Amino acid sequence: MKQRGILVVVSGFAGAGKGTLMKNLVGKYDGYALSVSATSRKPRPGEENGVSYFFKTREEFEAMISADELVEHAEYVGNYYGTPKKFVDEQLDKGNDVILEIEIQGAMQIKKKFPEALLMFVMPPSAEILKARLVGRGTETAEVIDKRMKRAVEESEGIENYDFIVINDDIDECTEKMHNMIQSSKYTPDRQKAFITMVREGLKNL
Ligand code: 5GP
What is the pLDDT, as a whole number, of residue 1? Predict the structure, then answer.
């Protein structure tokens, strides 16, 4: 029997390489589905509606909140971000593990609503490398980079609320490690309650 999938929350500072890591994971291994978020942020060059994000106006986003269409949502650096419910439910039912690449406030909402969700935090090997990656991206103004570095300091305070940290040095090694962490995490007793009960009851009845 194929078990229902689990929710895998992936957070990390902007520039820590989450996006590339997630694409690598989903491309390399079966059984993962990457959730596409809704946001009120403007698209960056090369970003496609429905692929990178579902781009919405603030009003459209607020309507989604009112209609209870989001699993979680948060405001980050002046814009709304949220996870559409429908896709998540469909994929979990199919037995796929659903990856939510979201920031820390959303991650904490997920942890509260779904205690069995797995929370991972992607970190750069050092603070200097993070700054260099953000600047090297070339898509943000100095002001936004500064805001994001400040935000990273704040977010670093919340890392202990996560189940695993993932240090992104070598992308392929890191992808494999992440896959192993996710698959191993499924066998903790709190994520296997139904199975344990079934065997326990079976033992009593023999
Ligand atoms: P960016 O604007 O760089 O694409 O994303 C900014 C931040 O928003 C990142 O930390 C990203 O993980 C987070 N984010 C993206 N989608 C969601 C979402 O659906 N919910 C929440 N809470 N955060 C999100």
Answer: 57
